[in-house]
TrEMBL record:
Gene3D superfamilies: NAD(P)-binding Rossmann-like Domain (3.40.50.720). Keywords: Oxidoreductase. Transmembrane segments: none annotated. This is Glucose 1-dehydrogenase. It comes from the Bacteria.
Amino acid sequence: MNKDLTNKVAIVTGASKGIGVGIAKQLSTAGAKVIVNYASSKADAERVVGEITANGGTAMAIQADVSKATDVKRLFEETNNAFGNIDILVNNAGVFEVASYEASTEDAFHRMFNINVLGTLIASQEAVKHFEGKGGSIINISSVVSKNPEPFVSLYSASKAAVSMLTKASSQELGPKNIRVNSILPGTIHTEGLINLGIEKDSDMLKGLVARVALGRLAKPTDVGDLVVFLSSDEATMITGQEIDISGGMR
Ligand code: NAP
């Protein structure tokens, strides 16, 4: 048994930035051919592809908005044309917004549920078509707030709770097709997404978040990537329907 993913083909949604970059790089290091999906950040996605290929890996950037079914269908078709049969889907693309419960808007609801939840659903449905007859692995990036909600992220927490339940529910239906579905629950990871919320590297807010982690540090995107590699590998063939916390013991 090992974590070798040679000849496997993986799609990582939202891999132009943040956690998706760490996932794409670790999958490539394990031998997989990787699709670096992005919505609008073409240059970032191409830089990630460049870094993977410079390291001896195989990768390609493909634009697709995961909340649009036609884009997702094209993402899988282009992947299949370039690299052949798809084995691994990582539903990482996601957006988060901070607002009080009373100030949470319909627009924010639709944005977060369309990308985080509907995007996970339609990409997974497309993956199932491509996995038909041979099985595969779907890994959804949820969040610790799906279980332990924090103030000012009600809609985001609700969207990630939906992702976690899609994971568990779909694993029951897809098990007989040898398709495993698991979710990973990061705590805080300092990505572009957090910087966009104004959480800078040496800020008091970030130090406060680190202080809540039993291991005394924030996880890195590659830590999530290592867990994705394990869950995609032959070492995890009996693991499905699980939610795995990778927060370092966040309180
Ligand atoms: P990030 O730095 O903001 O990066 C988001 C990525 O998602 C980008 O590559 C972005 O591509 C892509 N994306 C956004 N909307 C998309 C769409 N409609 N279609 C396709 N791609 C889209 O975010 P992150 O912090 O790495 O978070 C990644 C995932 O981890 C999310 O699901 C998030 O909820 C989850 N998470 C993050 C944390 C954390 O502390 N960072 C904690 C728990 C869970 P473009 O740049 O092209 O738009």
